[in-house]
From TrEMBL:
Name of this chain's protein: Uncharacterized protein
GO annotations of cellular component type: membrane
Keyword Transport set for record: yes
Superkingdom to which the source organism belongs: Eukaryota
Topological relation to the membrane, as annotated: Multi-pass membrane protein
Residue spans crossing the bilayer: 77-98, 104-127, 139-160, 191-213, 234-253, 268-289, 310-329, 349-367, 379-402, 414-432, 444-469, 489-508, 529-553
Keywords on record: Membrane, Transmembrane, Transmembrane helix, Transport
Organism this protein belongs to: Effrenium voratum
C-alpha cells in the first residue's frame, strides 16, 4: 500500500517503499566565476571547481529562487512534479486495469521502467565535469526534456489496444469470465520502454538540478540550511497535487478502474504531457541562470575516486542500499487488495492523494520550522515505524473483511503525511551535509545510483518470495472467491513485508545523527579502496541479477517460471 523511497525523486502502492523519499525534487543553483585561478590546487584533495565561488550578484542580499533570472527553477519543479504525478497516477488504472497485467508482472515492469535511475552516477559525473557549450547544468536539463518529449510522442501516437478484461453492461470489468483481449498483454512493451526513456530524461534533469540546488543550499547560513530544499519539495509537491486533480477529473473512466462513464484516453494524457514538456525547453533556456564554465581537466577523476572510497560517504551509501532493499521487499498482493477488496477507484485515490500532498507540504513547513536540528536517526526511525503502523491497520482490516471501504483504506495516506515528509526532509539534509563543493552532482549521482540499484533487486526478491505463496497472490480469481484460507495467506504476506521493513533499521547507526556529526565524520573518518569496491561492487552484482529476473518476468514465454514469480510453466 505504500513504498519507501529515500534519495533522489519519484515515485505507488507497497509497504514502506514509496513512503520514504520521492527523489525527484527539481532544483536550481549556479556556480560563479569569482575565484583566484592563480592559487595552486592539489587535485587529489580539492577539485578545480571548488576554487570557484558563487556569483552573489544574482542573489542580492539573500539567497532566493524567486527572481526573474531563476523563476524557471520553481516552474521546472512544478511541471516536473505534475508530469511525474501524471505518469504515476495513470499507471494504476492503465496497467492493472486496462492492460490487465498480473501484479508480479506489473512490479517487474515498474522496476524496468525505473532502471535508468541507476545511471545517476555517470550522469552526475558528466554534469559536474563535462559542460556543454559552457553550461554544466542547464544543457543537461534541456537534453532531459528533449528525451522525454520523444518518449511521450511515441506513446501518444501508438494505437491504443482494446481492454484486456471483458466489460459488463455498466461498463465495469467482469472478472468472472475469460478476458476478451488476451493480446493486450503483448502491448505492454510499447509503453514500458518509452517510460524507461522518460525515466532516463527525468533522472538526467534531476541530477543536474539537484547538483545546482546543493551548491546554493551550502551557501545558506547554518541555522537556515535546508530552506531552499524544503521550498523545492513544496513546489514539486504542488505539481503532483495538480496532477492528481487532473487525473481524478479527466481519467476516471470505468475502463481505468474509475467511476465515470467517460474519460480521456491514456493517449490523450500522454499528448498533454508531451505539450508541457515542449514548453519546458524555452523556460529552461531563458529563465534558469547559470554562468558559463570551462571544461574541467581529466585529472578530476582522481578526486572523484577520493569521494567513492571515503568511509563516511560509503557508510551513507550502504545505509541507503540496505534499508531501501529491505523496505522494498513488498507483497505482490497489495495492488489487488487495493482494487478488488478495498474497491479503490481512481477519483477517490486521486482526491485522497491530493489531501495527503497538502498535508505533506504543511508537514515539511512544520518540520523545517521546529525540527531542523532534531537527530536524523530519531526522525528516520520514528517516521518509518509510524508509517508501517499506519499502513498495517487498514491493510489487515481490509484483508480480513472487517472494514472494506475505499475511504477507510485510503485514509492511511493522509495520516502518513507527517512521517513521509520527515523522511523526505532528512534525506535532503543528509545529502547536503555529505556533499563536497564542486562535486555536488557526483555526490547526488553516486548516492542515487547505489540507492536505486536496490529497488530492482528488492522487486525481484519480492516476486520470488511471494510467488511461492499458495494460493497465488497474483490471481484475481482468488480475490473474487475470497476464501478465509486465502485471507490468511495474504495476511502472512503483509507480515513478511512489515518484518523485512523493520529489520532494515539495524543499519540506522550508519548515518550521522545531525549536521555536526556529519562534518566530523568527513574530517576524521579515513578512506580505503576496499570501501569503494564494496560501495560499487555489491550493488552492481545485485543489479545484474535483478535485471535478469525482471526482464524474464516480462517475456511471455518464460514469465510463468517460479524463479520470476510465476506459478510454473
Amino acid at each position: 500500500m505504500m513504498q519507501a523511497e529515500m534519495g533522489p525523486d519519484t515515485k505507488n502502492s507497497q509497504a514502506c517503499a514509496e513512503s520514504v523519499i520521492q527523489k525527484y525534487d527539481f532544483a536550481f543553483s549556479g556556480v560563479c566565476d569569482n575565484c583566484d585561478k592563480s592559487i595552486p590546487v592539489d587535485l587529489s584533495e580539492m577539485d578545480v571547481e571548488a576554487t570557484q565561488s558563487v556569483d552573489h550578484k544574482i542573489w542580492g542580499d539573500s539567497i532566493s529562487l524567486w527572481r526573474r533570472a531563476t523563476i524557471g527553477v520553481p516552474l521546472n519543479g512544478f511541471f516536473f512534479g505534475f508530469l511525474s504525478g501524471l505518469l504515476g497516477g495513470t499507471g494504476y488504472g492503465f496497467f492493472l486495469g486496462y492492460l490487465g497485467l498480473d501484479p508480479y508482472v506489473l512490479a517487474a515492469a515498474g522496476s524496468i521502467m525505473k532502471l535508468p535511475e541507476v545511471l545517476l552516477l555517470p550522469l552526475g559525473y558528466l554534469n559536474d565535469k563535462v559542460p556543454i557549450r559552457g553550461y554544466r547544468r542547464k544543457s543537461y536539463i534541456i537534453i532531459s526534456w528533449i528525451i522525454s518529449f520523444v518518449a511521450f510522442l511515441v506513446m501518444c501516437t501508438h494505437p491504443l489496444p482494446d481492454p484486456y478484461f471483458c466489460r459488463g453492461a455498466d461498463g465495469s470489468y467482469d472478472y468472472t469470465v475469460p478476458p476478451c483481449n488476451p493480446g493486450a498483454h503483448d502491448q505492454k512493451s510499447y509503453y514500458i520502454l518509452p517510460m524507461a526513456m522518460i525515466s532516463l530524461g527525468f533522472n538526467m534533469g534531476s541530477v543536474a538540478n539537484e547538483g545546482l540546488l546543493l551548491e546554493y543550499s551550502q551557501l545558506e547560513p547554518k541555522e537556515k540550511r535546508g530552506t531552499i530544499k524544503a521550498e523545492m519539495t513544496m513546489v514539486t509537491t504542488a505539481g503532483q497535487l495538480a496532477a492528481a486533480l487532473f487525473i481524478g477529473c479527466f481519467m476516471n473512466g470505468k475502463e481505468y478502474l474509475g467511476t465515470f462513464d467517460w474519460s480521456l484516453d491514456f493517449n490523450h494524457m500522454m499528448l498533454i504531457a508531451m505539450i508541457l514538456v515542449l514548453v519546458q525547453i524555452p523556460l529552461t533556456m531563458f529563465f534558469v541562470y547559470e554562468p558559463q564554465q570551462r571544461q574541467i581537466p581529466a585529472a578530476s577523476v582522481t578526486t572523484s575516486w577520493q569521494l567513492v572510497k571515503s568511509s563516511a560517504f560509503v557508510a551513507v551509501l550502504m545505509f541507503a542500499f540496505g534499508t531501501h532493499m529491505m523496505v522494498g521487499i513488498s507483497t505482490t498482493a497489495a495492488p489487488l487488495v487495493r482494487s478488488q477488496w478495498a474497491g479503490v477507484k481512481v477519483l477517490q485515490q486521486q482526491l485522497y492523494g491530493m489531501v495527503s500532498m497538502v498535508m505533506t507540504v504543511l508537514a515539511v513547513w512544520f518540520l523545517k520550522a521546529y525540527f531542523l536540528q532534531t537527530s536524523w536517526r530519531k526522525i528516520f526511525y520514528s517516521s518509518c515505524v509510524a508509517a508501517v503502523l499506519l499502513d498495517a491497520a487498514p491493510a489487515f482490516l481490509t484483508v480480513f473483511g472487517v472494514v472494506r471501504n475505499q475511504y477507510f483504506y485510503l485514509g492511511e495516506e493522509i495520516l502518513a503525511a507527517l512521517p513521509i515528509a520527515a523522511l523526505k526532509l532528512v534525506s535532503g539534509l543528509l545529502l547536503i551535509e555529505m556533499s563536497e563543493p564542486g562535486r555536488e552532482g557526483l555526490c547526488f549521482g553516486l548516492l542515487g545510483t547505489v540507492y536505486n540499484a536496490s529497488a530492482p533487486f528488492a522487486s525481484a526478491i519480492s516476486n520470488q518470495i511471494f510467488g511461492s505463496f499458495k494460493p497465488s497472490l497474483s490471481d484475481v480469481a482468488n480475490y473474487v472467491q475470497d476464501d478465509p484460507s486465502f485471507r490468511k495467506t495474504v495476511a502472512w504476506s503483509y507480515v513478511v513485508t512489515y518484518g523485512t521493513t523493520m529489520a532494515g533499521f539495524a543499519l540506522i547507526r550508519l548515518i550521522p545523527a545531525q549536521k555536526e556529526e556529519a562534518q566530523k565524520r568527513k574530517k576524521e573518518w579515513g578512506s580505503h579502496w576496499l570501501y569503494a569496491v564494496l560501495a560499487l561492487g555489491f550493488p552492481s552484482i545485485c543489479l545484474l541479477y535483478a535485471t535478469s529476473v525482471l526482464v524474464m518476468a516480462n517475456v511471455d514465454s518464460v514469465s510463468c517460471l517460479e524463479i520470476v514469480g510465476g506459478q510454473g510453466c
